[in-house]
Amino acid sequence: MDYDAFLSFHGVEFGLMEGTDGLLIVKTGSGGTIYGRENKYLTLATRIMERHNVSVMVSDNPLEIAPEENMSTTMSVAADYIASRNVVSSVFYFGVSKGGQYGAMYGYHYPFVQKWLLLNMPVMINWHKSKAGLMKMPTDQEVTLLFGERDPSYPYVELIDLLRRENIKRVTLPDVGHTFSHEIDEFLRLAERFLFDEE
Questions:
Q1: Which tens digit of pLDDT belongs to each residue from 53-78?
Q2: CATH classification code of 5-194
């Protein structure tokens, strides 16, 4: 099992699973690869493509590239893919840790994304930038911020409630840590639960 295609652009690597009914963009955590621990990103991409016939583009997250440039590169490649495949709906973003924070900070620049799923983003690192970005998020884009109860950011998540935006919701995952190292099955279900509305 491997990706259908690979791409490297401006120092960012991508793995792609090809479907026909939309696009899921996955941005890994800081220093994360397109495979992840125990191939969790490849497994996720395969699962989503097979069950929903949606293309999945997994982007790594190199430490040496500045956050805004890193996110801009990822979303430029996604936008080019959308244009080349004439994808006009069902574009989703799933950001993990730092990848989630990039969605909070810069997501408002990308109106082609209908739903954002931001998992265990580090709330207390550059909160002012995350807050400013979330406040600019267009009201027609749904944003779900997920936090494991054992994640280091969990004690600070009530800051998100102070935003008071109807299109932004916060969800707690009971007894889950930052990396989902013992909850891989639950990790694999997150996109389906919160982006594809499956129970």
A1: 999 999 999 999 999 999 999 999 99
A2: 3.40.50.1820
Q: Hunting for tokens 């574009």 — which residue is that?
A: 91
Q: What is the mean pLDDT of residues 7-20?
A: 95
Q: Sketch the domain layout of the chain as residue ranges.
A: 5-194
Supply the angle between the helices 67-85 and 98-106 in degrees, to the nearest 10.
80
198 — pLDDT class (breaks 50, 70, 90): low
Q: What distances in angstroms separate CA 68 from CA 80, 108, 119, 181, one per listed residue? A: 18, 12, 18, 28
Helix axes 127-135, 98-106, angle to 10 degrees: 50
pTM above 0.85? yes
Pairing of strands 23-27, 91-96: parallel
Compute CA distances 38 → 58, 119, 179, 190, whole Å: 15, 18, 12, 17
Structure-token match 């990308």, residue found: 110
Give dist(CA 46, CA 185) in Å, integer: 14
